[in-house]
Amino acid sequence: MTADEFRALTGAWPERMADLERFRVMLTEANAVMNLVGPDSLPDFWSRHAWDSAQLVDLAGFGKTWADLGAGAGFPGVVLAILAKGRPGSHVWLIDSLQKRCRFLQTIVDELELPATVVWGRAEEQALKVDIVTARAVAPMDKLLGYAQPYLSRGAQGLFLKGEKAELELQEAAKVWQVDADLTVSRSDPRGRIVTVRSAKRRG
Q: Which domains does the chain carry?
């Protein structure tokens, strides 16, 4: 996928495309010393990272508050924050437990003047009330629900980007959690799934 194809799919404003390109360059530079993403995935930035993240907007819409757990390299949180710039009510909390990743994220937020706040700490310990809680490549569903449950219990909906084992992960999680969830085929990769979680309560 090219940048033009991404713009056609998302309707992203030219200013937001410029922000995404700047983010791509900064990520590439930082990745040489920090290993934020697999280096062989960077040439496919627009499909594998940007579009994979941006598709969540179609499910949630703009004007929402998000908590991105294990925000890492900024997917999906930074992409969502870039697309949300200039849209009232939109804000993204980028939460990560590693300080060096938070420093990288803060550099991006400052450079691009994003509607986002970087939080250094454990996801499950934050007392945030948001509309959407999200994560990508953080943990299997049984563990991820533990991280996300405080947000879900405060009224958030979960939108989690998962791979081809999403259904199996949900089955395993159901042994520990009572989950109200469904799966949507990813638009960036038909093997992937988006797990929408409306509620999750630990069994027993």
A: 3-156 (3.40.50.150)
